[in-house]
Structure formats: structure tokens, C-alpha cells
Amino acid sequence: MADRMKNNKISIFYKLQIFLAFAAVAAVLLPVFLNDSHWPVFARDYLEANGEEQTGAANIVSSIYLGYRAYDTLGETIVLLVAVSGTIGIISFTGKNLATGYNEDDFEGGNRKNRKRTVLMEVVTGKLGPVILIFGLYVMLFGHMSPGGGFQGGVVIASGIIFISLGTGGSENNILSHSGVLAKIEAVSFLLLVLASAIGLITGIGFFANPFNGNPIPPVGYIILLNAMIGLKVGAGIAYMSVAMLGDTDL
Amino acid sequence: MQNILIHSAEFVFAPVLLPLLGAAIVFCAKAFSRGRIAKTIEYTGAAIGLLLPWLMLFIILPNLLGGSVYEGTIGGWDKNLGILYKFDGLAWLVNFLGFSVAMAAWFYSLGAGPRGPKFTAIFLIQTAALSATIMTADLFNLFVCLEVLGISSYVLVCSSEKPGAFLASFSYLMVSAAAMIFFLVGIYGLYRLTGKLSYEGIAEALAAMDNGGGITALISLALIIAAVALRVAVMPLYGWLPDAHAMAPHAVSAVLSGVLIKTPLFALSRILIIFPAGSDAGQLMGVSGGLTALIAVIIALSQKDVKKLLAYHSVSQIGYIVCAWGAALHIGVETPAGLVLMTAAFLHALYHALFKGTLFLTVGTLIDRAGNRSVYELRRGAGILKKSGEKIPVTFISFMLAAMAIAAIPPLNGYVSKNALSYALKGRWEYVVLTLASVGTVASFIKLSLIFFPPGKNHNAIAFLENPQKVHPAMKAAELFLAILCLAGGLFSPYISKIAGSLLNQSGTVGINSIPPDLYSGGNLQKTLIITLSGAAVYLLCSTKQGKAVLKRIRERPRSFSGLFTSFALGLAGMAAWLIYRTFN
Amino acid sequence: MIDRILLLILFLIGFYGIIVKKNVIKKIFGLTILNSTIVMLFVLEGSKIGSHVPILEENITPIVDPVPQALMLTAIVIGVCVTALALSIVYRLFNSTGTFDIDEIRSKLYKDEE
Fold first, then answer.
1. For chain C, which residues make up each domain, given as ranges?
2. Is B9 exposed, middle or buried (0-12, 13-18, 19+ CB in 10 A)?
3. Which residue on chain A is closest to C91 by alpha carbon?
4. What is the pLDDT of residues B321-344, one digit of tens each?
5. Taking the domains of chain B in order of start, what are their residue ranges?
6. Considering CB atoms only, which of C55, C73, C84 is closest to A146?
7. ipTM score here?
């Protein structure tokens, strides 16, 4: 009885605590969400007038995230790199500290590999994989003039690689979905990205400055270059993470 | 070649780019080669990332001392759209702090683990993010930098492979990722009002409005401050820190406690200096800093786990720093008094990084050798270390130096920086609170130091590992390096304080020195003696039966996952309400 | 106005998920909802000053504000990364404790340390 009373007491305290947190968040956010001031047009007008001329990209969103604010994009790529590398490190380290009965391989239906493969899926994914890869390359390389770009294209490429690995009966059967190859592509494209950001330092025009000025390569070349490197890095990284989660390889 | 010299200003990005380059090289080494070659390339990458930036830091030091500031837009775009950066004395000092601890900690990890290219690469990325955070002058870029800093530290905390570390990392991840979304809401509010993202652009646009942005601007500022203050771990937002810092590998703990909680604080001061409401925000944070210093040291005194004790001490010491930092912002960093406070805050941040780094490394070495981490059970630490092959007791000596430094025994660096804080805060209520906190610090370090000495009469002996692992020379070198810096920081403090003062001083008033002129006067030494004696008295009081019962209650107070979010929400609401109250009254 | 109120409610739902739900996976869902809310808020509000996508061609003026879209690209990628990392940590927590309940995980992992 006393125990129950104690529980009751705790739960009232707990409810009060939750209620307070909610009230505080709602009260703080309400004025910000309800603010009705007119959305600023300065940046839009400036970019509409000068964006394409200064960066060469018709897609103004691309011109911002690979031109005006490319440094943010470098940071974003690094977040992805750390997340991929950390996730693989964390999930591939199994076998230690397992609670009894909670090892994945103990469940019914055999090991992970068998559970995921059916003939239907192998045929469909195997045929679709290359098509998706080509689409991904298109999205990646035409990001400066159409919706898309390195991140979006990279994710599509990654799904193409996952399809190929599902379709060929194991990710180690195809060179594109081989975990070692993916790791190499990711590492090299990250190195190239860091070097590309520093081209301006070596040629003396400044960090992250566009080194192409029209002779012979037009300025948009820098955006395409960055898009390609980010696309390869993201594609290889996410595919690597997914292949690791499929559990075909010993990482 | 001439181009390079002309644009040497852009080389302030070296502390960001070189560690990134190092990390990229290490990743390549991991992907392409195995064995000895991979190891060689990995060490080369680490050297590029951790040693080469020093070269740049010393090249530009004379210019910064001469009063010049490197600032501009990354990529040379229009300053309303591009990302602004600012490399001034403050950025130099924080870089100095970050690279000295990071270098020693990485060196330590060579001996103690976690080893391997993945750890090195993520460690380098974290170091790069530290420099990037302190030199950015753009709100959204600050968001990205804090996320890089955060995600690399979640992974590094996990790398100790203890199940408890995963829970600690999960709590840290959830609460700080949620806080970063509140940060984004703050960016939304300010962007909606002004259309700018750089600190200066936002402040100018707000100043041009007739009501200064009104409530929305104040709440947005409060959202940003709360999200950054969570990373700094002041009251009441400190809940995630003790677990994360205690569970991380020792080398990572040293960096997390030494550097990671201070960088966002100094980055935040860039924002608060510019905004008119920043001085009020500084006042409230100063108050919470003072309370943090006192409350956290009481909790620290109650801890059983040695690393948790150290982690709570980090919370307490960051309270000292935030207290002086907030008071400086309240007075205004341009005024001489504000400058003295800010210099004292930075000195304590630097010195705390050095002695807390040493403490985490030495205590970590001992608990790995002993296989036990309880303050009450572990004894005879010096003997255990001798058994594991330390002929000269480097670890023991380094520990004692650092413990005496944190307890403010002259002539070590802690004595200097705590006196500088007292001198700057003299006559205010914070002075009393911080003095009380110092008594608690002394008491808890008497408690901690006992793990190195033989047990008393009534102590129950416990079994230790039969054959303790050898202490790797790299570990000893790292410990000794930091401990010597502690000593040097105390002996050469007048010079260090002078350099720090003139780097932080941008308005040109000369002759700021935050070190009290009567540092070793009879009065100060007497005060230290009284604090030390009362610390010992508090310790004796705590080791009585009643004292132990009280400490047990404090230690086993209810802590829950949802409590982290409740305290964040309440802290946020408190900050918003305070800013609105001050502005409209 | 009504759309922003709905977004605020969505935000509070996400916050509810994080703070009240005991299941760690649902907590991560809550975080994802919070992230999506702020992305929608930025993009929705930024699109109110124009009517065309920000890809310049003949006769498409006014375009929407492209800056929020570019910022949110970054925020989305960061959100996905944090979610992936959180899920992998939860996988390990489940492996070592056999439960998804946060209180049980805490009591199982910290029982010998408190």
C-alpha cells in the first residue's frame, strides 16, 4: 500500500514536470510562430538579379549552397562522413555485451542474409539497379540547372548500389557494391573535396573562392566539380552504411 | 609565391583546414593500406592536423598583438549573402587552448586507446570543428559547426565500447539534437525579421527597426542562447554532461571537459557583445554560473565513481568561468572592469583545461590498472602504478600537481586564476559563492587524492587485477606535458595574463592586467590557508556517518531522461522571460 | 496563420514524443518530427513572397526565396545523420539490455554504478 502511494506521488510529480515543460515550450514558441511580419525580400531580389551571373548556375538554390554558402556544405558533408563512419563502427561491433536471447541470429528464420532474399526481389532489383545509377548521375551532374545536386544525386546513386547488391545475391559479388571499394571512393572524394575547397588558398584568391573565371572554364565549372565530388562521397558513404546494415560483410 | 604572401590573411583557416586534411588522409590510409604503411600514414595525418596549425598560430600572433583582426567573407562574396568570419585575439586564444589539450590527448590515446584510424580521423574532425566554431560570425554556420562538434563527440563517447557509454551518448545526442532544433527556430525568427544571417547584419537590421524587433527578436535570441548554453552545461542544463564525460574514453574525456564545453561559450560571447539584449543575458548567465559552481561541487563531493566526480567538477569549474564571463558581458567588455573579468574568465578556462586534462588522464591511467573506479574502495594507487612498471612515479606526480592546482595551492596555475577571479569579482555576491565553492573543491580533492595512498585502518581491502597492464610511454609523456604546463602556467602567469589581456582587448586601452598585484601577499596566502583548512574540515565532516548519509541522498537523487528536457524547457522560458522583462522595464 | 498554428501543434507533438514516450525508437520519431516541422516552417514561409521555383528561366518572376531552401537542405542532411547515429546507438543498447524502454535501460545499465 505504501509502495503504491509512493508511486502515485512520483507520478503526480512527473505529470507536473511534463506539463511545465510543455507550457514553457508552447509559451516561448507561440510568438515566434505567430509573427506576421513580411518575409524579407532582399536576398531573393539580389539573387534574382545577380545569382546566375556571379556563379553561373541557373538553379539559385545550388548557387547558394555551393557558391555563397559552400562552407556550410563542407560542414554538412563532414557531419555525414562522421555519421556514416560512426554508424558503421557502432553496428558492426557485435558479439560483445549481448544480453541473453537478444542476439539477432538467434531469431527464427535463419540468419539475416536468408531472410532478406527472394527470387522476385533479386530479379527486379538487379534489373533496376543500373537504371537508377544513371538517373543518379544525371541528378548529380545537372544540379546547377535543374532540381538536384550532389546530395540528392548521391542518395539516388546509393539506392542504385543497394539495388545492385540485393540483385546480385550479396554485396561482395559486384565490384560496385563491394564494401572495400565503397570505402575507397568515399575517402578519395572527401580528400578531393577538402583540396578543392583550398584551391583558392594556393592560387591566392581566397578560401573557397571560385578558381574558374571563364578562360577556359566558365565559373559554373566549380559548382559542377563540387557537385560531382559531393555526389560520389554521399553515394559511396550511404551505400557503404546500407551494405553494412544488410550484414553481408565482415567489416 | 607573392600571391600567397599577400593573401596570408586567408591562412587563418589553417586550424580548420589542416585537421580536415589530416582526417581525409587518415581515411584514405584506412581504405587503401594495411599494417605498417597505414600506421605511418595515419600518424602523418595526425601530425598535419595537430602540429602544423601551431606554425600558423605563431606566425600571426604578432599581428594580432599589434591590434589587427582578420575578417571577411568566405569566398569573397557579397557580405549580405556570404558567410562572415572573424579571427581575432579571442579566436587565437581558444585555438591555443584547443590544440594544446587535443595534442596531448591524442598522444595519450596512442597508449591507452581507443586506437585506430577511425578514432584519429574523428578526433581530428572534432578539433577542426572547435576552430571553426570560434571563428565564425554567421548564425547558420554556427549551427553547422555545433552539429559537427556534437556528432563527432557522440561518436567519440561511444568509442569506449561500454554499454553505459551508449546510454550516455544517446541522452547527450537526444537532448542536444533537440536543442539544435530550437536553435533553428531562433534562426527562423531572426531571419524572418531581418533577412540576414551574419551577426552584424542581424544586429544592424534590428537596430534599424523602431521597436528593435520586439518580442520575437528577444525570444529568438533566448532560443539561441539556451541551445548554446546546453553545450556549455550551466545550471539547469548540465544533466547530460556527467554521464557522457565519465563514460567516454579517458583521452576523449580530457578534450570534452577541457575544451568542448568552453568553445561554445566563447563563441556565444561574439553574439552577445553585438546584441543590445546581450548584456541582460550575460547577467542572468552569470548568476546561473555562480549557482552552478556551488551546487555542482556539492554533488561532486557526493560521487562514488572517480570519473563522475571529475565530471561534476567540470560543471562546477565551468560555473566559475560563466560567472565571470557573464559579469563581463553585463558590464561591457569594452570597459576596463569588463576586460579584467573576461581575461580572468579566459585564464581560468585555459588553466582548467590543463589541470582537468591532466586529472582525467592520470586518474584514467590508474583506474585501468586497478580495475576499479570507486572512490571509496580504490586505494594504494601509487603502489599499483609502481607494479605496472612506473619506476619514476610520473602519473602520481602529475596527478598531485593537477589536484593541487584545482585546489588553488600556490604557485600552481589554479591559484593564479582563482585569485584573478576573486580580484575581479571583489565586493560582489558572486565572490562569496565562489569562495564557498572553493572550500568544496578542496574537500572533494582530498577525497579523490586518497585513491593514491595506502588505506586507513578500517578500510576493507578489495581485490585488484593480478598483472596490471604496463603504462605506455606515450601516456606518461602526455600526462607530464600537461602537468608541466600547469606548473608553468602558475610561474609565468604575469606574461600569460598580459598576452591574453592584450589579445582580448580590441578597444585599445593599454595596461590591462587581470592578475592581482598582491598575488603572493600575506592576505592572499592566509585566505588560501583558511580555505584549505576549512576544506579539510568539510572533508572530515563528510566522512562521518551522518555526512555519508547526506551525501548518499544527494548522489541517489532521482534523475531521469525526461528531466533533461524539462530543465531545458524551463531554462529556455526563464531566459526568454528575463530578456522580455528587462527590455520592457 | 492557420498553417503556422498547425506547425506549432506538430512541433509540440514531436516534443511530446521525445519527452513522454518510454520507447527509445518513438523518441527518435519525435526528434524526426521536430526536424521536419522546422524544415516545413522555413520552406513554407519562404515561399510566400513568390510563385515560381528558384530556377531561372524566361518570364518566371517573382521566384520564392531560395535562401531558406538552401539552408534547409543542410538541416535535412544533418537531421538524417543524427537519426541514423541515434538508431545505431539504440541497436547497441537493445543488444546489451534486451529492451527499448528508456527507464529499464537506465536501471539495467546503471544498477551497479549508482
1. 2-110
2. middle
3. A91
4. 999 999 989 988 888 888 888 888
5. 51-583
6. C55
7. 0.95
